[in-house]
Design brief:
heterodimer; A: 306 residues; alpha+beta; Cytochrome Bc1 Complex, Chain D, domain 2; 3-stranded antiparallel β-sheet; two-stranded antiparallel sheet; 31% helix; flat; B: mainly alpha; 2 domains; two-stranded parallel ribbon; 7 helices; rod-shaped
């Protein structure tokens, strides 16, 4: 076969290039990934899972949860929000500066400062500067937000920029930011999932952080979430005769599902581990590669200088 | 022989040729233009294979510009760090202290006070003798040393701001100027104050 070598070479190059793209390049990029610092904090993310949560990942895998649930929050954009925190000594100047931002453009009759549909074009916002701090603008690009804050600062006021991640997943309150590589550092194997019959679970521990709720939901999804299509995972529970005192772990079931008198439904170790794993899914801190402003009550505490 | 019958030719009139022809110029130019546009697009949107750059960000520079640099958050982070190093040993990283010995800061009326005068005095002068916190008598024989005297104004202000806004506390921020004023008022020779002396001060 005269062309045998050429066929081999072509196949080698084709497969080798795929291997470089799919295996080598990601390994070079993320193979050395380690825990990252949480923005504006001395914390490290993610913390190692507890032992039961690590076992719970295997229950999650074995129960086929990833067939209906993803663990990846998508983010399509990023926007800035401006919070006016102080008007300084000359409130009139700050107010004038803010109103000037909303002055309609002389040519088109609209202003381009914000994409927020709630603020009418050209109409000055109703900013009551006696109630501070107050969000005065949102849906801004970073460069425009910087310009606005610069204007307010030069007028003697103070304002802060909040970074907000946007996207449909985030609008559904599935998370505060997109998923990044660090989120999966302790997952083996990673349970990304690709079909969303049920909601995304990347941040479920922060959203539904109650182990009892999680266990009851596993036993009887429809009794806690109306209209849920999730099948009950009752093989993770055991109905047994109460021997002596009732178990503190026993589920508090609604009447129609309650076991006969003298019996109780208790979660097996697998169920407890799975619940621990679900509670450990928390992608709720800002990281360098997925920044957002973590809004704490304290950042908007009113100044109380005497 | 000239009357030989003419047979139809077995050769087709015009067969395919195997000659090489030059690549049309327009295909060549289009390829170059498309490659150029692709390179420009990659340059602007590809993040240059930086593992930290995910969509919707397109470059490390853009990602840098979106890092929150909110003053309040940075102060809290600084305060938390110092608190856990200096104060947390006795008052606990959860701010609950130790019953009967180290007063809790979480929910304490001393911490949540309207003014910051008394609160700022405590780490600068120290505190001795019994005091009442959340209705409970506290007495730690050794008292509290002036743990904050060695901290800078901004560090101490950050710590006080942190404890006034953590664990459900709702006090306002403390500024470096507040700390500076109290420090000047105390002067160089500060004796630990007692709870009674503290109560005589304005909040």
């Amino acid at each position: 076969m005269k062309t045998g070598f050429h066929v081999f070479l072509a196949a080698f190059i084709a497969l080798g290039a795929s291997w470089c793209g799919f295996v080598l390049a990601p390994a070079l990029q993320l193979g050395t990934a380690k825990q990252a610092a949480v923005l504006n904090s001395s914390d490290i993310y993610p913390v190692q899972r507890s032992g039961d949560a690590t076992l719970g990942l295997q229950v999650y895998r074995a129960s086929g949860c990833a067939a209906c649930h993803t663990e990846q929050i998508q983010q399509t954009g990023v926007a800035c929000e401006i919070e006016l925190t102080s008007v300084g000594k000359n409130p009139a100047a700050v107010e004038k500066q803010i109103n000037a931002l909303f002055a309609p453009s002389p040519f088109l009759g609209v202003n381009f400062i914000t994409n927020d549909q709630n603020i009418p074009y050209g109409g000055p916002p109703s900013i009551d500067i006696s109630h501070l701090p107050q969000i005065i603008l949102n849906h801004l690009e970073k460069s425009k937000a910087d310009a606005v804050v610069g204007g307010i600062t030069s007028a003697g006021g103070k304002a802060e920029i909040h970074i907000i991640a946007t996207g449909t997943d985030i609008a559904r309150s599935w998370g505060l930011r997109r998923s990044v590589a660090e989120d999966f550092l302790w997952d083996d194997p990673v349970q990304l999932g690709d079909i969303r019959v049920g909601p995304d679970l990347a941040d479920v521990g922060a959203r539904l952080g109650n182990a009892d709720w999680q266990l009851l939901h596993l036993y009887t999804p429809q009794s806690v979430v109306k209209g849920s299509v999730m099948p009950p995972f009752r093989f993770l529970f055991e109905t047994r005769k109460i021997a002596g005192a009732p178990s503190p772990d026993a589920l508090h079931l609604p009447e129609e599902l309650a076991p006969p008198a003298g019996f109780e439904v208790v979660p097996t170790d697998d169920a407890k581990n799975l619940a621990a794993y679900l509670l450990s899914l928390r992608a709720d801190v800002p990281l360098y590669d997925a920044p957002f402003t973590a809004l704490q009550a304290s950042t908007s505490a009113p100044s109380n200088k005497k | 022989m000239s009357d030989e019958p003419k047979f139809p030719s077995t050769q087709p009139d015009a067969g395919p040729t195997a000659a090489r022809s030059t690549l049309p110029m327009w295909i060549f130019s289009l390829t170059i233009v498309l490659l150029y546009l692709g390179a420009v697009y990659f340059d602007h949107h590809g993040g240059w294979f930086d593992a930290r750059v995910y969509g919707p960000y397109v470059s490390a520079e853009e990602l840098d510009s979106y890092q929150p640099k909110s003053g309040a958050a940075a102060v809290l982070a600084q305060g938390r760090k110092t608190y856990e190093m200096v104060c947390g040993i006795c008052h606990g990283v959860d701010g609950f202290g130790k019953p009967g010995q180290f007063p809790p800061l979480a929910g304490s009326e001393w911490v949540n006070a309207k003014g910051v005068q008394r609160l700022t005095h405590i780490p600068l002068t120290g505190l001795t003798g019994p005091i009442t916190v959340k209705g409970e008598q506290m007495n730690f024989p050794a008292g509290m040393a002036a743990m904050g005297a060695a901290l800078s104004d901004s560090d101490l202000a950050a710590v006080l701001t942190y404890i006034r806004s953590s664990w459900g506390n709702k006090g306002g921020p403390v500024t470096a100027d507040d700390v500076k004023n109290v420090r000047a008022e105390i002067g160089g020779h500060a004796q630990p104050m007692t709870g009674e002396e503290m109560m005589k001060m304005p909040e």
